[in-house]
Amino acid sequence: MLKSLGRVLSVLFICSTIFGQSTSPVMLGFSSDSTSAQTALEAKFDSSLNPNNLRDWMKRMSSRPHHIGSAYNKENADFIASQFRAWGYDTKLEEFQVLFPTPKTRLVEMTAPEKFKLELQETEMKEDATSGQLREQLPSYNAYSIDGDVTAPLVYVNYGVPSDYDELERRGVDVHGKIVISRYGGSWRGIKPKVAAEHGAVGCIIYSDPRNDGYYQGDVYPKGSWRSENGVQRGSVMDMPLYPGDPLTKGIGASKNAKRIEIKNAETLTKIPVLPISYADALPLLRNLDGAVVPESWRGALPITYHFGNKTPTVHLKLEFNWNTVSIYDVIAKMTGSERPDQWIIRGNHRDAWVNGADDPTSGQVAMMEEARAIAELAKSGWRPKRTIVFAAWDGEEEGLLGSTEWVEEHAEELSKKAAVYINTDSNGRGFLGIGGSHTLEKFMNEVAKSVPDPQTKISVWERARAEQAINGSPTAKREAMDRADLRISPLGSGSDFTPFLQHLGIASLNVGFGGEDGGGSYHSIYDSYDHYTKFGDPGFAYGIALSKVCGHTTLRLANADTLPFEFSNLAETLNGYATEVTKLTDTMRDDTRTLNQQISSGMLKAVQDPTETYVMPTEKSAVPFVNFAPLQNSIARLNDSVKNYQATAKVRKVSSAALDEALYKTERALTRSEGLPRRDWFRHAIYAPGFYTGYGVKTMPGIREAIEQRDWKEAGEQIRVVAEVIDALATEIDKAAELLVK
């Protein structure tokens, strides 16, 4: 922490003289008079926030395991609902029934060259008061793995992403009929069994390597925050890039009487059995791998030489699950708006956990609750928001965004009409502010971030984030930190509850949180506890209060603004950047293909490059054809004209109306298509989506980008026209908003 603080302080002079410290004199969406009133309201809101509430609520809610279907998960739902009711919100629990497999058999054993049965058990620690609650803890497993009983040789596949299998192919290592072992990292965990199955593997084991999350990074728990040798990362391996939510009720709310498909027809279950293990359990398996030594970038930090394997060792993997249906409960609390009640600002955080879940998700949940309590205190003094505020404590996020997805699918028609913005948080810790979301809200969020002080440095969280970017960012990020007026917010892929709002219904969304100085090690383990969090995560809950302030200011401004603070110049700049990227992608592929083919034809590449390792000779690739990006470029040009016209009109015409607000927030809807993306129609947004092979990681302009990456040139041309059409539709909606300014 002190090291990072020192780095930040070293650039304060640069920040203050070049970046600027003051906010705009008039807030986006507000007049001069309403800006003054809003500033006073936010000061009153800030003064009522109390970190002791966060501490007390976390201690209560994380005192016992509370996965979906557990008794304490329902107790937490009732407790949160009772708090919201006491604060004056119109509150209810919404129940859904979802598929939730839990393990009844977990067996991993090495059968040759020696016999060894894995422990598959995290150990109780005297320093962690809740780590010994064995009867209530879910054992370590990957939800939505299929049942399986397989015995096969083991192959090490690094992170198990597509590029790793390209390397295996070059090395002549075939995983067909084998069990693969992959380390966590490099992609979302569900991609690992997905890609393994596509290459013919019959089973998948995932372990946490200490290089990524263990003693290589720092002292392990309980001395330090990092993962100890017996710690295991649980998690879902549902194929969420196809669709999140209940696997049996795609596209519809999983209500009691909903029509469900048979489990055998559920697309999002894995095709092979998969199980997570600790690095203590992984060590004897990896130590016995035969074959060539892996490349340096594949090597972890265990005290062994890492080999590919292929013939030895032989491993027996047996998994059986209880395929149960359980109830989940979303807590929904509303404060009805005084002027525009049918425009909703929705604020959410999930509340379910794999075990005790102090960090994930309770750290975000308690910050949201304190935010809601402070807003309720404002209401008791006579203030009311212009627009309706909806707070949601989601259930079932960990298994696959179940609670938020089912609620969105159940209420899709109403949300499509009324939802203006969705604001999401999840885990939270010490460090730097991170924001992802719709770029119509980028300029607005820069303003908000400038209004909140950083607990450590006392400069704004915006300035601290910008200083970090200037020091540690990529060359492009460093340059933009010096030259660009705004911090960029990240495009959203998946991994939390914004997904159904943004990518299914086209509701402008944000994802906000602090981190970077809170270490690792507890994620999805029994050690994600109150003891771990209050020692290493955010000991004084100062960053919990900072999160309450950032999201509270965001919610209050969106609820109170004269006109919703959507702004389109940053969006147009961003879309132009994405168009440039996909264009350059084809140019790069064309150059790489030409170089490869020339090397093959000239004999520069040899099948055998080292006396001890055999490489497979690559085959020539078909040339990259001309790809016509003119429709996309033309739509971007039209969008730029529409944005300039809107900005010019907005400067001279200050109009506030419900119709204008609706036109503004429905610009995000214009970026969706009911047909969805190729081969995954649930994802309707043409600009932001999780990658088919990245999971949480975003693919921007995904239809175009993934078609190019798969060398499907016909589809690439089709998707260029599709994206051009949605950008044209966006421009049309912006033109409509401009017309409302002059009426």
Structure description:
This protein has 743 residues and is of the alpha/beta class. The protein has four domains: 1-29 and 459-488, no CATH class; 30-98 and 326-458 and 489-560, 3-Layer(aba) Sandwich (Aminopeptidase), CATH 3.40.630.10; 102-320, Glucose Oxidase, domain 1 (3-Layer(bba) Sandwich), CATH 3.50.30; 569-741, Transferrin receptor-like, dimerisation domain (Transcription Elongation Factor S-II, Chain A). Helix content is 40%, strand content 18%. Strands 1, 2, 4, 5, 6, 8, 9, 10, 11, 12, 13 and 14 form a twelve-stranded mixed β-sheet that branches. A hairpin with a 7-residue loop joins strand 17 and strand 18 (698-700). Helix 3 packs antiparallel against helix 19 and helix 22 packs antiparallel against helix 24 (713-741). The N and C termini lie far apart (54 Å).
Structural descriptors:
743 residues; disordered N terminus; 40% helix; alpha/beta; single chain; 18% strand; two-stranded parallel sheet; twelve-stranded mixed sheet; 4 domains; Glucose Oxidase, domain 1; Aminopeptidase
Radius of gyration: 26 Å
CATH topology of the largest domain: Aminopeptidase
Q: Looking at this structure, what is the CATH superfamily of the largest domain?
A: Zn peptidases
CATH secondary-structure class of the largest domain: Alpha Beta
Q: Note the main sheet.
A: 12 strands, mixed
* Broad shape: globular
The helicity comes to 40-55%
Number of strands: 18
Structural class by SSE content? alpha/beta
Overall mean pLDDT = 94
Uncertain stretches of 5 or more adjacent residues: 1-9, 11-23
Number of domains: 4
Count of helical stretches = 24
- Terminus-to-terminus distance: 54 Å
